[in-house]
Structure formats: C-alpha cells, structure tokens
C-alpha cells in the first residue's frame, strides 16, 4: 500500500489538488460530496476508484471530463486546469446508451459526428475498433440485436473512436451477469494493453479493481476522501486463473479491510 503521490509528466496525466464539492439537496441543504481529494494519475496508468455509493466517484470522473467544476481545489490534465468539456476524453457508462435506430457502425461513429469531425476520416478506425472488441460481423446490426455484453463492447469502441487521451469508465459492467462481466474484464485488459490510454475506472467490485488496475484508490463515505492507495503487483497480461490465487485473495482482503473500516464511519441513514 502506498499513499505517496506520483506527478504526471505528460498531457495524459490527471491531477486532483485538494478537490472538494458540495451539492444542494431538494430541501436546500448543502451535501458535501468530496473533501480534500489529492490524487495523481500517471499517463497510461489504469486506476480504479473504489468506495461506497455516494462517495463522489462519478463526480470525480465528471470533473476530469470538464462536465462539472469543483467548488474548491482544481483538476488538471497535463498540468493544465480543466475548465470546460474536453473533446479528448472518452466516456463509458453503466448502461451502453446506444441509439436504437443506428447501426453498430453509426453508434461507434457518433462522437465524431457530435464533435463536427469528418466521419469519412474515422470510418477505418471505427471498423478496426469494432473488430478489436470482437464484433467484426455486426457492423450493420441494430442494438436490439445484441446482447448486453455486446452492447457494452460497442460503447467501448465508441469511447475510443476519436482517439481520446483519457478513458473514463463509470461502472461499465455492473449491469452484466457474473460470467459476462468476467469476460469483459479480460477483454478490457487486452484492449487497454493495445490502446494504452490513461483509464479512470469507477467500480464497487474489489476483485474487479484488483484484476484490472495498476493502482486501486479507496475513498471514504461522503464526503469522499482518499482513504488509501494500493499498488497492484501482478504482471500483465492477467488471466482468469489469477482470481483464484492466494496472493490475489490476500490483496483483495487487505483492500476490503480498509474499505470496511472507512465505510463503518458512514453516519446512520446516509
């Protein structure tokens, strides 16, 4: 376990500096979502955010994307403060959110269209990405012809089509069954090794975070703070057999102990 910061040195690194954020409830009360978050993510690093519901994990992702500004502190990419939505970020959500009337190819090309880029310049890349996620025979299919796991593969290809520097993933496999989720974790590892984007991955799954990540960041309950940061020592590529290894179980248990201790501070009724 380590809590020492690593300073990113290129345009793909992410830095949170004393980040705090408050929301106003429907009753007009101020709710502290985040407080004093300091975290550095190296270029090309795969980092998972792990913590209880409501601890600000998704809020941190939205700040990196430039969709939300912190009330205090700042978020930087490559040393430059994020002040507006960033076109160099790819987003993958819990639901695939594909447009049902568009084919797989047209759904993958959607960010290119939305950003006003020439679609013709990205068709070959889209085709390559569709093949890379294992859907080469499904370019012309509609979303309702795909399984949930296949739809998430399309969403991943869509997030990568404009070649973003950073990939933000918000519990992308939470709605899938256990076997499909395991398969998607293995596929995501393979795709990350080929694309090598900087990835910030939100999850509630301890095993999932250990399997995928270079580091796992455990956040406290609201207001979210960094409780601990764990380096993941396992060599890549990682196979499904790792999930049954004693060293894997021991590290997952260590992370769980921090998670359980920090979660025990959650006020009653929160």
Give an overview of the whole structure.
The protein is an alpha/beta fold. The chain has a domain of 68 residues. Helices cover 31% and strands 23% of the residues. The chain is built from 8 helices and 10 strands. It has a 6-stranded mixed β-sheet, with helices on both faces. It has a 4-stranded antiparallel β-sheet with strand order 2-1-4-5, with helices on one face. α4 crosses α5 and α7 packs across α8. The two termini are 28 Å apart. The N terminus and C terminus are likely disordered.
- How many beta-strand segments? 10
Question: What sort of overall outline do the alpha carbons produce when their principal axes are compared?
Answer: globular
Mind describing the biggest β-sheet?
A: 6 strands, mixed
Distance between the ends: 28 Å
Beta content comes to 15-25%
Biggest sheet strand line-up: 6-7-8-3-9-10
Low-confidence residue ranges: 1-11, 266-270
Helix content: 25-40%
Radius of gyration, taken over Cα atoms and rounded to an integer in Å: 19 Å
SSE order, one letter for each helix or strand: EEEHEEEHHHHEHEHEEH
């Amino acid at each position: 376990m380590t809590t020492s910061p690593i300073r990113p040195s290129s345009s793909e690194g992410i830095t949170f500096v004393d980040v705090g954020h408050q929301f106003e409830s429907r009753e007009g009360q101020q709710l502290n979502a985040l407080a004093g978050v300091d975290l550095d993510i190296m270029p090309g690093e795969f980092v998972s955010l792990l913590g209880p519901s409501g601890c600000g994990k998704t809020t941190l992702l939205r700040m990196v994307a430039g969709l939300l500004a912190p009330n205090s502190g700042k978020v930087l990419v490559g040393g430059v403060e994020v002040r507006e939505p960033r076109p160099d970020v790819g987003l993958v959500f819990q639901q695939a959110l594909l447009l049902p009337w568009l084919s797989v190819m047209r759904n993958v090309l959607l960010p290119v269209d939305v950003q006003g880029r020439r679609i013709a310049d990205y068709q070959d890349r889209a085709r390559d990405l569709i093949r890379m996620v294992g859907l080469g025979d499904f370019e012309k299919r509609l979303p309702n012809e795909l399984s949930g796991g296949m739809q998430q593969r399309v969403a991943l290809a869509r997030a990568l089509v404009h070649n973003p520097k950073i990939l933000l993933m918000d519990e992308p496999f939470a709605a899938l069954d256990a076997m499909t989720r395991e398969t998607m974790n293995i596929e995501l590892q393979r795709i990350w090794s080929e694309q090598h984007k900087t990835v910030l991955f939100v999850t509630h799954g301890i095993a999932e975070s250990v399997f995928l990540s270079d580091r796992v960041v455990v956040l406290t309950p609201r207001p979210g703070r960094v409780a601990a940061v764990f380096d993941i020592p396992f060599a890549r590529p990682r196979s499904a057999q790792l999930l049954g290894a004693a060293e894997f179980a021991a590290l997952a248990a260590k992370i769980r102990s921090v998670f359980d201790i920090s979660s025990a501070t959650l006020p009653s009724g929160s």
